[in-house]
Amino acid sequence: MAGEEINAFELFKEEMDVDEVSLKVNAIHRLKTVVLWLGPIGTNEKLIPFLDTLVHKEEDEVLFAIAEELGKICTQITNKLTLFPILEQLCGVDETVVREEAVKSLIKLTTCVSEMDIQNVFAPMVIRLAQGEWFTARVSSTSLFRSAYSKAGSFKDKLRKKFLDLCNEENPIIKRASSKKLGDFAAIVEKEFVISEIIPVFKSLSGDEQDQVRVLCISSLISLAKCLTKEENQRFTLTILLAAGEDKSWQVRLAMAKNFPQLAKAFGKDITDNNLVAKFSILMKDVEADVRTAAIKSLGECIADISPEKVASILLPTLSSLLNDSVAGVRSALSEVVGLIAVHSGTALTKEKLTPMLSELIKDDNHDVRYGVVKSIMGIAKVGGPDVITPNLLAGLSSLTQDGHWRVRLGVFEVCSKLAQQFGREYYAKNLEAIFIKFLSDMASAVREEGIEQLRLLVEEFKSEWVIHSYLPKMNEAINKEKQGYLYRMTALNSILVSLLI
Question: Which of 86, 305, 382, 484 is a good FRET partner for 314, with 20 to 30 A between their CA atoms?
Answer without folding.
Answer: 382
